[in-house]
Amino acid sequence: MADPETRGALVHLVFGTMAAQAVRAAVRLGVPNALAGRERTAPEVAADCATDPDATRRLLRALAALDLLTETGPDTFALTPAGALLRSDQPGSLHAFAEMFTDETITGAWQRLDHAVRTGNTTFADVFGTDFFAHLKSRPELSATFNASMSQGTALVAETLPARYPFERFHTVADIGGGDGTLLAAILRAHPHLRGILYDTEEGQAEAGATLGPVADRVDRATGDFFTGVPAGADVYLLKSVIHDWPDDACATILDHCRRVVPADGRLLIVEPILPDVVDEAAPPVMYLSDLNMLVNLGGRERTRADFDALCRRCGFALTDVVDLPPAAFRIIEATPVQQ
């Protein structure tokens, strides 16, 4: 029989879904906000959240065991730094991110992961009757949560990327599939000489006005579908967390459209994680879970450097550099247009 530590590690993984749902319940009920900046008893939290006191106590204990709270005394709880990230009312929040990635819209198709592995096909439409983005479009409130989650998930990259790439020699950055403009706004704030183009669907950039704020006068907003074309006029084309959503043929369509408009001295920047050739201890498990998430929900994948190199060459680009973005797992994959 395996030793207790090994057995415990496996049980911990099996119970992972339950842990995620405890986080979801806390976010939906407003528990982190009720505990903001102070110690409170379970009945006090229950009164704020309009929940059953005993059931609330049980949830709070579970959250404490998950290191999101600490029980500072009998039946008295406070947020840990990790738990504080679930508050909706502070900078750096992951509230929407946690809500979206524990929602059945993300988790539903995972119930059929075995079928996806057996067939190689996404299972989202089997569960919801349509594709992922069409489902979001039909539910505006969910679409807004998704947009907020993407913004929150981009925040760490937005803090580091502007200083990690030499934007000084360029004049206009086009953020293709740029959502609410979180990353583009950070680049423009750090580089006042730049102008920007924000390109996404109407739903994708619904919250862009508020996000762009002081740099809005330097941004041309264009609405459209990157499968039909991308706007001209930039010398840097940026794709952050776009390519991993799609299979190779769809990615080639997007990159072909970029290749048609990028100038000879321009650049393509793909911002994605890069899978190592062989799994090692340094590779965060979330990269591989994201790869499976792409499989079941979107049909895309995470890729190795060789995969990105092949995709770029297929579309008339040469991969010229890879820049780390610590502490995030993302990389800047730089490619230049190959002259015919």
Automatic annotation (TrEMBL):
BP-aspect Gene Ontology terms: methylation
Protein name: Methyltransferase
Originating species: Actinophytocola gossypii
Organism classification: Bacteria, Bacillati, Actinomycetota, Actinomycetes, Pseudonocardiales
CDD domains the UniProt entry points to: AdoMet_MTases
Positions of the O-methyltransferase dimerisation domain: 12-86
A molecular-function term among this protein's GO annotations: methyltransferase activity
Keyword annotations of the record: Methyltransferase, S-adenosyl-L-methionine, Transferase
Cross-referenced Pfam families: Dimerisation, Methyltransf_2
Keyword Nuclease part of the UniProt annotation: no
Domain (O-methyltransferase C-terminal): residue spans on this chain: 110-317
Gene3D superfamilies, per the entry: 1.10.287.1350, Vaccinia Virus protein VP39 (3.40.50.150), Winged helix-like DNA-binding domain superfamily/Winged helix DNA-binding domain (1.10.10.10)
Matches recorded under InterPro entries: COMT-like (IPR016461), COMT_C (IPR001077), COMT_dimerisation (IPR012967), SAM-dependent_MTases_sf (IPR029063), WH-like_DNA-bd_sf (IPR036388), WH_DNA-bd_sf (IPR036390)
